[in-house]
Amino acid sequence: MEPILIIIIVAAVVAVAGLAFFFSRRSRRVEIEPQERAQVGGRQSGDTALLEREAPGDKAPGETTPGETVDADPDVVLAEESTVPAVADEVIKPSFFDRLGKARSAFTGYLGGLVGAGALDDEAWEDLEEALIRADVGVQTAMSLLEDVRSQAKEEGKDQGEEILGLLKTRMKAEITGKDRELIIDEGKTNVWLFVGVNGVGKTTTIGKLGKRLVAEGHKPLMAAGDTFRAAAAEQLTMWAERSSVDIVRGNEGGDPASVIFDGIKAAEARGCDVVLADTAGRLQNKSNLMDELSKVRRVAAKEPGHVSEVLLVIDATTGQNGMTQAKVFAEAVEVTGVVLTKLDGSAKGGIVFAIESELGLPVKLVGLGEGVDDLVDFDPDAFVNALFE
Amino acid sequence: MFQSLTDKFDGIFSKLRNKGVLTEADIDAALKEIRIALLEADVNITVVKSLRDRIKVRALGEEVHKALNPAQQVIKIVNEELTESLGGETISITYNSKPPTVVMMAGLQGSGKTTTTGKLAKWFKSQGRNPLLVGADLQRPAAVEQLRTLGRQVGVPVFSENSDPVTVASKAVEEARSTGRDVVIVDTAGRLAIDDELMEQVRQISEAVSPDYTFLVVDAMTGQDAVTVAESFNDKLNLDGVILTKLDGDARGGAALSVKEIVGKPIAFAGTGEKLDEFELFHPDRMASRILGMGDMLTLIEKAEQTFEQDEAEAAAQSLMDGTFTLDDFLEQMQQLKKMGSLGGLIKMLPGLPKEMRDVDIDDGELARVEAIIKSMTTIERAEPSLIDASRRARIATGSGTNPSQVSMLVKQFSEMQKMMKRMGGMGTKKASKARRGKKGKKAKKGGRVTAKSTARVSEKGTKVRKAPLMLPGLDRMDADDFEKLASELEELSE
Predict the structure, then answer these.
(1) A:121-140 residues touching chain B, CB 8 A cutoff
(2) CA distance B432 to B33
């Protein structure tokens, strides 16, 4: 930022403060505002020291020796390999559809009138647009999809509700099928999967669930508690690590996330783990200093022996149109390789990921469908599109 | 905050402004764009429809035809309707005559309940209360641990135990009674509105502690589903209001508009940052102004009032105007300023700022650098920056870890600012009379609107702002043109 701007602001605030006091002095002559005064006093005395984020780049993480930060505290290293026998068959992956069914049953019939209602009138077309908008697909995306379908329907001479809905679904499915949704683990390397996203989307929980899944698939994951900002985030991840019997490396609250993750990678290499699940603190994408910090985390994670094979953007299904901005900004900052859509078991439909897939080409790789450890499943584009209209 | 919506409305309104007479077609075109802007801002589609209808009826009615400036009139209507939708009045908390006052928090997972619970505790403390935090989220791993950490940071005790949420909540109220805590804030587990079992549990907690206030915590990034969620929670819990979180993001915040309109519950508080004091009472009228790009001077003034010492600020404002403002004064102001919150947040509250300036990325670290430079100067240098020659400059640069050109830039800009501020005082004086006549003045309108829609205390202030005296630097009376002129002058300077 230009220093000049700061100066303007300072000047402005001086002016404003002067104004404010001019008036508060005036008004106090007339009346007393006890409540407000109490607030003023309270604010001043209640200034507590808060955790401040470390500015990025203040520490060269490459130089950090594993012993220097809190590396692999023996207390929190949980579970040895021996506890990892083939539990694989026990893990029953819930089908996408089954799980959605529960959530959707209450909301079906929204477009019921469309099917078998004969030729579509303008109102019905509007209903269709409304359905897409309600599912958070976005008004522009909805408008352009329907325009396409409208001209296609005209060409093919279709005008029945059911036919049109079919065309629309086919059109939408075509947009998002045929993508590679496999999660990549390159053999013989210390793979790093970095989990990024805004606050409260479920990054830590996703890592927790994924840990168990990977163990069941015969991998040896290690969790790195890179969220050093939120209070008790590392404790939360540690509990997940315990539940799924996976090693975890954590640092101090307020510490440098890049070095915690790098320590995790080093530890994973030493213990022969093939994938590091690296948590990061939630951050809003318009906080550029925090986004810079995240870019740094990614750069550090890619240093030998680290091999970043996935950067997964976690998006909450309740997210509205802001999800598109999230995807754009995060993709630019850390080269996102895929999306995890969480909390799809609620009433939200997560339509924004349709726009993200079709506009940005980012594949959705995983979907969170519940609170249980087994409720993280592969994305199924067909089921997803069908569910948007239910 | 709400920035992109602001930009959209800027665009729509500037098209209208260029027209002398508005036809029905003009209004329809504007309404169509308003519809898209609102939907892109995640305003619920049902709300969009009814807003659009209401605006249309009024815009085609007499009040626009008879107006001298129809475009301004339409903007006024949109603003009034938005304010109405956001929920007219600022909530005021009344405390239970038989303490404790019980506050319960509910919401989806990840909406920010626990963090908000901590912030609310800090807010109650600032109101002179003695809150007790209750960790009744026994579901999410380490949720209670998180609350305890927050409790330590704000200096408020936390009650929890490993039983079940209903028991924890009831015991906590007893605990508060016996230890003289007058406010109890219960954090509950996040739950989906469709999860009957968990919804039943939260209802039981509510029944056990019969809260005076039940708040639903809603993430500002939520899409169309916000309304469904709020309705379900309201059915079970009879909400008193909504707390909107993550407003410091760039989400357009349409959820805010929708919940009030459909569920009929106002937005009580808003979380505006990661720090625990970045949390405020929600002022719907001010938020509507902010959405329409008219700044939020009232909040800024309140923040300033809470931060600055009265005498100091008056002295600084005085010295600024007669040009005796020194680098020392500047340093002091800057340190006060830091207490008011992030620079980015403050800038967004300034009215009439052109888009380019609102969008500038602000790094608070820059302040530290300027501070370091000034602190590396001697007392004499601070009072008389013109003394600073090459060798002094080199010393200051070494002392502050900067380079000599940065030092000379600061000195140069500081002296330019001194000149500018003097000029701005004059500019404000000229503008003020113009603004009062309401031709171009956004400020005059702002004052009036605030008066109409808000609580007594605020309206009184609004009136005050409008009647601002002419003796102070007139930043609040500058309009976009002035700022643009200023910005271009500054750019020339910094080159």
Answers:
(1) 130, 133-136, 138-140
(2) 33
Instruction: Please state the pTM of the whole predicted model.
Output: 0.71
Cα nearest neighbour of B493 on chain A: A4
Which has the closest alpha carbon to B112: B2, B247, B230? B247
Q: Phi and psi at residue A53, in whole multiples of 5°? A: -70, 145
Put simply, the chain A residues between 150 and 189 with a CB less than 8 A from any chain B CB are none
A96-175 matches A190-336 in fold: no
Percent of chain A with pLDDT over 70: 70
Smallest CA–CA distance from A52 into chain B, residue: B275
Which residues are registered as beta bridge partners of A194?
A278, A311
Options 2.60.40.10, 1.20.120.140, 1.10.10.10, 1.10.530.10; CATH of A96-175? 1.20.120.140
Q: How far is A160 from chain B (nearest CA, A)?
A: 25
Chain A hits for B142, CB-CB cut-off 8 Å, are: 232-233, 235-236, 238-239
Split chain B (495 residues) into runs of 10 and give each run's mean pLDDT: 62 74 82 86 89 88 70 77 75 90 94 94 94 92 91 95 93 94 94 86 94 94 91 92 88 78 89 89 74 60 67 69 76 76 68 57 71 89 86 91 86 76 53 38 34 32 31 40 52 45
Angle between helices A3-30 and B327-339 (to 10 degrees): 80
Whether residue A280 has pLDDT greater than 80? yes
The fold for domain A190-336 equals Rossmann fold (3.40.50)
What span, in angstroms and rounded, lies between the C-alpha atoms of B403 and B393?
9
Half-sphere exposure of B147 (CA within 13 A, CB side): 30
Q: Check residue A100 and give its pLDDT.
A: 59
Q: Could you tell me if B414 and B385 are in contact, meaning their C-beta atoms sit under 8 angstroms apart?
A: yes
Quick: pLDDT tens for B315-349: 766 776 666 778 888 887 777 777 776 666 676 66
DSSP, residue by residue, B415-431: HHHHHHHHHHHHHHHHH
Assess A38–B contact: CB distance below 8 Å, yes or no: yes
Any residues with CB less than 8 A from the CB of A27 and at least 6 apart, and which? A33, B460, B464
Could you tell me if A254 lies within 8 Å of chain B, comparing CB atoms? Answer: no
Name which of A198, A199, A134 is nearest A326 in CA terms: A198
Angle of CA points A332, A338, A342, to nearest 5°: 110
- The yes-or-no verdict on residue A296 having pLDDT over 90 is yes
Q: Cis bond leading into A74, ω under 30°?
A: no
If you count residue pairs, one on A and one on B, with CB atoms under 8 Å apart, how many are there? 306
- Domains of chain A: which residue ranges? 96-175, 190-336
Cβ contact B304–A343 (<8 Å): no
φ, ψ of residue B245 in degrees (nearest 5): -110, 165
Residue at B491: amino acid letter: E
Q: Is B428 exposed, middle or buried (0-12, 13-18, 19+ CB in 10 A)?
A: buried
- Among B225, B248, B336, B362, the strongest candidate for a mutation testing the A interface, having the largest count of A CBs within 10 A, is B225
Which chain B residue has its CA at the smallest distance from A143's CA? B36
Q: Which residue, among A5, A9, A13, A235, would best test binding to B if mutated, counting the most B CBs under 10 Å from its CB? A: A13
- What span, in angstroms and rounded, lies between the C-alpha atoms of A377 and A117? 36
CB–CB contact A347 B417 (8 Å): no
- The whole-number pLDDT of residue A96 equals 64
**Residue A298 Cα distances to A312, A326, A366, B167, B188, angstroms:** 12, 17, 21, 45, 35
pLDDT tens across B138-166, in order?
988 889 999 999 999 999 999 999 989 99
Q: Which of A253, A330, A316 is nearest to B110 (CA)?
A: A316
The answer to whether B159 and B133 are in contact (CB under 8 A) is yes
